[in-house]
Structures are given as C-alpha cells and as structure tokens.
Amino acid sequence: MRKLTMSLLFGGALGATIVGAEMQHSMHADTMHKEQGIVVGETRELVLFPRPMYDSTLRNMREHLRGIHNVQRLVGEGQYAEAAEAAEVGMGMGHNHGPDGVGAEHQFMPAKMMLLGRDMHMSAANLATVLREAEVTDELQPVFTALGEVTASCVACHDAYRLEPME
Predict the structure, then answer these.
(1) Which of 46, 113, 116, 141 could make a disulfide contact with 109, Cβ separation 3.0–4.6 Å?
(2) Distance between terminal CA atoms of the chain?
(3) Average pLDDT over residues 106-121
C-alpha cells in the first residue's frame, strides 16, 4: 500500500512538473509571438474600436461577467429576487453601452456580433423573469437553463470575435 501511495504521489508530482513546464513554454511562446505581432492559431474575427470605446466595451463585458457572478452567488444564497435584480442591472436590456451610454460602439460591430449581444441582453431579461418565478416556486432547474442561455451568447461571441483598439 505504501508503494502504491508513493507511486501515485511521485506520478502526480511528475505530471504536475511536466504540465507546468508545458504551460511555461506555451506562455513564453505566446508572449514571444505577441511581441512580434503574430497571433498563433487565432481564427476569431478582429473587430477594431477607437480606444475610448474599446476601453468602455471591455468594462461593460466585465460588468456582464460580474452580473453573472452576482446571479450565481445570490441564487446560491436563495435570494432569487435579488438575483433577478442583479441580472437586470448587470446584463439586462437597459444596460447602457459606450462612453456616451447609447451604444455608440455598435457602429464598429459586425451585424452578427450585435445580434449576439442583443441575444445576451434578452436572455438576461428572461433570466430575471425566471428568477422571480423561482422566488415563488423554489424550482432551480429553469434558473440554470436560463443562465445557460445567457452564457451561451457570451461564449458564442467570444469564440467568434476578438477586440483590439485602433492605433
């Protein structure tokens, strides 16, 4: 038994060392390629934004992510009405975009990217409705389904597009 335990520990440590070395190599290669202006294996469509809109768009995406986090946290605490509010505030249709708050960045987005964003906002509005129903029914399966619809839009957009500031 002791030999088996030691073998497992050694094997795990060796595996971790190999994985760590591979990660360091990969990160070094990625850094080296980025410094040279090369994006290795990048297949996403490049979308260029003026610097203020680029910064604002990234800030908005982080707000959306924070909204998802708050929904998950509040659902875990059984606070469904508060989770509904978090969905609306952090991701809902009324969430303003751009430095001027009216979605000015849309003029730089491909049509499909705008549709994915709209779908995310609409899914978030649906999630808020489902969360309010859960306040009464205490059924979580519809909540997780609705949350999955929100994140499906996020994943699809981030898989299809990459943003960079105009220089």
Answers:
(1) 113
(2) 62
(3) 93
Whole-angstrom CA distances from 131 to 65, 76, 150 are 18, 12, 13
Q: Please, which residues bridge with residue 45 across strands? A: 161
Token pair of 166, please? 């105009």
pLDDT category at 8 given cuts 50, 70, 90 is very low
Contacts of 52 (CB under 8 A, 6+ apart): 99
Residue 154 Cα distances to 75, 77, 158, 161, angstroms? 20, 24, 6, 11
CA atoms within 13 Å, Cβ hemisphere of 109: 20
What is the length of the chain? 167
Helix (H) or strand (E) holding 49: strand 45-49
User: What integer is the mean pLDDT of 30-59?
Assistant: 79
The secondary structure of residue 166, as a DSSP letter, is: -
Tokens encoding 21: 């070395």
The amino acid present at 68, given as its one-letter code, is I
Q: Which domains does the chain have, with CATH numbers?
A: 1-41 (no CATH), 45-165 (1.20.120.10)
Q: Which of these, 135, 117, 124, lies nearest to 68 by C-alpha position?
A: 124
Q: 105 falls in which pLDDT band (50, 70, 90)?
A: confident
